[in-house]
């Protein structure tokens, strides 16, 4: 959610129950301003909160003019002092996929993982147990990246692509209409599109290249991994991800207010197919 | 004509500005980039400077009278603010220039305009059309001027706004004027210029008018024309004044086009779409009004005395400090809904238990304790259904007398606990939204709890949804919901040590009451515990809800057929040892009531509870917050004296390993293995031949014995 409309966004996202306490809210309002100034970001998003055992991580992201460019992620333990996280790489993803369980809340904590590695000793090949240390920071980076790639949402029309390539916020976006807001196809993944090329030519013909350049949520696997609800009568549409429980996306139809927040343990819900 | 009205509005709004020194205006006009008619401009100004002072006084007087004109002709147009902001540039000079030309018209207009704007419009039109023939000179000039304006399209702002409904009419008029002009061979006389330059403005005029005609051409596909579209677009831009409009011009163009089409459907669409909002608002309004119906003072006193309603707002305030909560408005509505509940049912105590999220709708859960003797209705219904089932099964057995009877006996169903005891201590009501009807959840049976532990399903939000799972859940979503609520309560409802104490009527501690003590009461001497103590040590918190045994009950029930059931239960115990307290084989015993939560088992090195102070910055007023790691979404807070529990989440337990559905049990041995039913292999060819040979040999031997007796007959029989 945009740092500029933080209070309203938190109020709209409060249906999921997890929000921020007043002192965190107040500290965020001030510190995100400072972050924006110091790092010179175009927009600062408050991404959410990852609940750890000892402490919680508060995550913010900074975006540059091009909304689809890789974002800078920052984390903080007290909503005041922010530290920049390294960008996510595939290597990190592989490394941290073996770590399970909750986050501890201590960024210097290291997970130990024993792996069997084949070691060549002359002609003999034998397996040795190697203990690999994985830092919690790395895990944090890759989880945030995975969540963004999988379930960050933006409504159709909120961004538009300029002919030169960069993607900008659409200032004439007035919100989805009610009928559009209830359909999953009006929401897109807020990341580089992966499935666009797989569409048939017929489908592509109906698309507007400046607005429909992202993947829609409609074709997410497994089907039904999004819960779409209207709250407060029809004044607010809330999407909750079932794959990463804790991610809430809200949008007030016919207004510009939209945003998403993740408050959760940072674990994927692998049992989803059993639960549907 | 639109042009007239627009220009007149300009005039009316800018009397003072118009009267500002001409020098500025003339300076501006000299910089006028308008191609084609620079000369006529200046030439117009020449003769009109003399006229201007004369016309300004009537203009100023008219400015006051014409403000109602503005309001009326404005018709929702937001133009007035934009105009004073305009720089005094050439168009305004043109306006001024034209003022005196149309001042006779103006005076006519102001008198007629006040009653109705539209009639004023039509008056203008009539006037213009009347005078059009008589004064083609002025018209053409106006056309020329308006065309200049069209090149600086700003001034056509008023066209769509004021007379959007008259658009077609005006267009026709314009076209009429065009035609008049075209047919009127004298049009070139209008330009107050020396005759020598008549030829070039002629060509220019034609060119301009051709261009305008082209712009006005309606599209064969959409019925729009470019002229109107551009004017609409620029109107919108000038109204809204977005930043960097040039970057979003295409989007604005699209929006204007879309708006053009969707207008007709507006009323229909609005009505359809807004209804659900209004319905919900109506329901919620009922919530707010319920208090007003009971006006008597006595009832008010009764209400206050009853005090069955909890102070939800206070708890919500504390939970907000912890970062948990539904938002103040939503909580208040839930508060009112709870009040509605307590008014409708005879409730002794009520508590806002929490919110369970579902796929289509969510559940708001209230934990309720009825007054004595109020909830006996359910019991009778269930007995009736049980009897019916028994009757049916007997009938079946009679028909199948000849078939082998199955010796399978289902393990005896463990009876559910009585109301007000164990897992059924409280009654739960749910509703989907505050303002919606409260539905009572049925009591939970041990079988439901046992199977609820083995499945993991999302709630849909509708209570009658069937739960399709393996092992098959005995019931629908309302039962599953109730079972999960029972498990969550048993696992996560905690209170500070000493808040509750055992009642002294229970008897002495030496008696081994099966299942432990059940009742507790508030400790009147509770002095509170320091918040820091509550955070540091988990032993300062105790469970005040009975633990549910693996059997599914809180109080152990000893089934008659011990062997089978004990085996089954032992298996269940082993499955659950990782997650819950270890139970002894034999009688199932769980931790007694009011055990501290420091005794809770960890899950794979994760402590079962996380404690936090709500604020590190102001510790003297902070509260202690407990968060369960076993049931994500369960929270408890205490400020030393008060405490409260709350749940918000999907209703599932946490497990670091992924869920594995249980394996179906092995097939039941229905028939004892015996020789008459065991299958044997069919004999192979060799075996058969050997058998036949042996048989033949036996017969041969038997026949040889008989040969001596009957020689003649045997020879026949051999063949």
Automatic annotation (TrEMBL), chain A:
Highest taxon, organism lineage: Eukaryota
Cellular-component GO terms for this entry: axoneme; kinocilium
A GO BP annotation: motile cilium assembly
Keyword NADP: no
Keywords: Cell projection, Cilium, Cilium biogenesis/degradation, Cytoplasm, Cytoskeleton, Flagellum
Localization of this protein: Cell projection, Kinocilium; Cytoplasm, Cytoskeleton, Flagellum axoneme
Coiled-coil residues: none
Family under the similarity heading: Belongs to the flagellar radial spoke RSP9 family.
PANTHER family registered for this protein in UniProt: MITOCHONDRIAL RIBOSOMAL PROTEIN S18 (PTHR22069), RADIAL SPOKE HEAD PROTEIN 9 HOMOLOG (PTHR22069:SF0)
Protein name: Radial spoke head protein 9 homolog
